[in-house]
C-alpha cells in the first residue's frame, strides 16, 4: 500500500488557535477537569448528541433527546428515537475505543446505525455524495476505492500522531473522512464522533465538550468550509474553521464552569432549566414558562443575574430594551 499524506499546510492562524485552545484546556484542567461536575458533563454529552443528530435532520428537541436517554416515553418517529439511543451508546464508548483503529471505527459505526441501515459497520457498496440540505457539495470517491482510501488514512494517522498536534490531526481526519464518505449512512455523525474521540485520546476532558453544538450553530459555515477544501484541494480552510469552533466552545465551557462553581439562585436555575440551548426567547415567552406576571421580578431575580454571569446572551446587546430583543441560553 502506498503511503498517503493528506494535503494541508500549517498556517500561522492554526498555530495561534492551537495555542489559544491549549491555554483554555489548561484552565479547564486547573478547575478540576469537570470531574466534580457530573451534571455539567452529562448535559454537555446530551447537547453533543442532540446537535449532531439535528445536523442530520433529526427533529427531536433537546428535552426529548434527554427523555429518550433517561428511558422516558417520547412521542416521535421511531427512527429518530433509535438514532438517539444509538448515538448515546456510541458516545458512551468514546473512552474505551482506540481512535487510531479502523476496526474500532467500523464497530462504532455498527452501534451508531443499529436497526437503521442494512450496511451497518461495513463500508458502502454504492455511490454517495455530500449534501447540505438538497445541495450536493461533491460526489464521494467510487465505492470500490473506499477500503484502500480508509486504510491509507488510518496508516497516515498512525504515522503522524507522534509529530502532528492532535488538534490539527483530528481536523484533517474529519475532512478526509467526510471526503471519502465511507458508509452508506451515518458519515456526518461518525466524523464528528471520531473527531471528539481523537481529541479525547489527547485530553479526556474533550469527551464532555460539546463541539457538535458549535458546529450546529455554524452549520452553513461547516459545509462551506468542506466545499472550499474540495475546490482548493487541501483541508486548510476546514482545519481553521474547526479550530475556531473548538476555541469558541471552550470559551463558553469556561463560563459554564465558573457559573457552576458559584451559587446559582433557585430563580436562575429554574429559568435555565426551562430554556433550550440555541433557541431565542422573548421576555414574555420566558415569563409565561415561569408563570410570572411582574416584569420587574423577572428582570431582578431571573434575567439580570443570568446575563451578568454569561449564562444567557441578548440577540441585540446594544439595544437592551428593544421590542425585538431575544435571549439565548449559553
Give the helix/strand layout.
Elements: H1 12-30, H2 38-55, H3 62-69, H4 78-92, H5 102-112, E1 129-132, E2 135-139, H6 146-160, H7 166-180, H8 187-202, H9 211-217, H10 219-232, H11 236-261, H12 266-274, H13 283-290, H14 295-308, E3 312-314, E4 327-329
Antiparallel strand pairs: 1-2, 3-4
Structure overview:
By secondary structure, this protein is mainly alpha-helical. It has 2 domains: 250 residues, Orthogonal Bundle (Fic-like fold), CATH 1.10.3290.10; 64 residues. It is 59% helix and 5% strand. The chain is built from 14 helices and 4 strands. A two-stranded antiparallel ribbon has the order 1-2. It has a two-stranded antiparallel ribbon with strand order 3-4. Strand 1 and strand 2 form a beta hairpin. Helix 2 packs across helix 9. The N and C termini lie far apart (47 Å). One of its GO terms (molecular function) is ATP binding. Pfam families: Fic, Fic-like_C.
Mean pLDDT metric? 90
Read across the widest sheet, the strand sequence of neighbours is: 1-2
* Topology order in helix (H) and strand (E) letters: HHHHHEEHHHHHHHHHEE
User: How would you describe the shape?
Assistant: globular
The CATH class of the largest domain turns out to be: Mainly Alpha
DSSP, total strands:
4
- Major sheet size, sense and barrel closure: 2 strands, antiparallel
CATH topology of the largest domain: Fic-like fold
Domain count: the total is 2
Structural class of the secondary elements? mainly alpha
GO molecular function: ATP binding
Pfam family, one: Fic-like_C
Binding site for ATP: 185-192, 222-223
Domain Fido: 100-244
